[in-house]
Design a protein that fits this description.
Radius of gyration: 17 Å
CATH superfamily of the largest domain: YVTN repeat-like/Quinoprotein amine dehydrogenase
Number of domains: 2
Number of helices: 0
Number of strands: 26
Strand order of the largest sheet: 4-5-6-7
Helix content: under 10%
Strand content: over 45%
CATH topology of the largest domain: Methylamine Dehydrogenase, Chain H
Length: 280
């Protein structure tokens, strides 16, 4: 199963085999900005412009609990590999760690001073990356990309200062590599999280990059762009190895745990399900 996000406060649950939506989840009072599914596929967490998150039972469509604590829009959410906790990113400049079983706000992480737009946790459960974005005036964009040690809940490295308009970030399963996407310069950067160095820049998009995902084996990344294309990248060489053209802006992309499929969403509301197997 996968899900799409919307501006009308609803979510739809999709059957990837039938390629159709079979359940609509409607409880948020404003647009849904992001969703994440637990590893066991039984629950999902949605983030919203109504400043809350909701935990859903995917089989019944019921809201199990509402997570309240942010004071502004919740822009992103990710779930830890053990499926027990979630981390949310908000325009109130904070990240929060939530207990999905109780709904308790376990920890508030204060490492940014501007709206936090994206967050990603490595499969090792130890490393996290987050990015914040500010516009002090109409000409300037200030971005910060930070690496966290989740065990001690502290920033351990700052990768980017004022380096561009960061729209999304992804982290490899082993926590050693991250990829950041940029909306103003149409590129992505591959980072070595141990040294803080940029390993390579991925160039080829002609429009802003809106989202990025890394395959479970950590070898490949997929990016979605306003140029209506989806690109598949070899992270070792930095080369584009496959591509897909949509009919409009591609807003989002993700790769299920089996690493065989790409799910991508267009600005028109259309969902694409693409086979990734055999691409090299």
């Amino acid at each position: 199963m996968d899900q799409d996000t919307s501006y009308d406060g609803t979510l739809k649950v999709w059957d990837l085999c039938a390629r159709e939506g079979f359940q609509a989840l409607e409880k948020h009072s404003d647009g849904v900005t992001a969703v994440a599914i637990t590893p066991d596929g039984k629950r999902t967490v949605s983030a919203s412009r109504d400043d809350t998150l909701k935990v859903w039972d995917l089989h019944t469509g019921e809201v199990l609990r509402t997570l309240e604590g942010h004071s502004e829009v919740v822009n992103d959410v990710t779930i830890a590999p053990d499926g027990k906790t979630a981390v949310s990113a908000s325009s109130d400049a904070s990240l929060k760690v939530w207990d999905l079983r109780t709904g308790e706000d376990l920890q508030t992480l204060k490492g940014h001073s501007d709206p936090v737009v994206t967050v990603a946790v490595a499969q090792n459960g130890k490393t996290m990356v987050s990015a914040s974005l500010a516009m002090p005036n109409v000409w300037d964009v200030e971005s910060w990309l930070k690496v966290w040690d989740l065990k001690c809940c502290q920033v351990v490295q700052i990768l980017e200062r004022y380096g561009g308009w960061i729209t999304a970030a992804a982290i490899s399963p082993d926590g050693k590599t991250a990829v950041s996407a940029y909306g103003d310069v149409n590129t992505l950067k591959v980072w070595d999280l141990r040294t803080g160095e940029v390993l390579r820049t991925l160039e080829g998009h002609t429009g802003g990059v809106n989202d990025v995902a890394i395959t479970p084996d950590g070898k490949t990344a997929v990016s979605a762009s306003s140029d209506a294309t989806l690109k598949v990248w070899d992270l070792k060489s930095g080369l584009e190895i496959a591509g897909f053209h949509g009919d409009s802006i591609l807003r989002a992309c993700d790769i299920p745990p089996d690493g065989k499929t790409i799910v991508a969403g267009e600005a028109t509301g259309r969902m694409h399900f693409l086979r990734l197997e055999g691409v090299s």
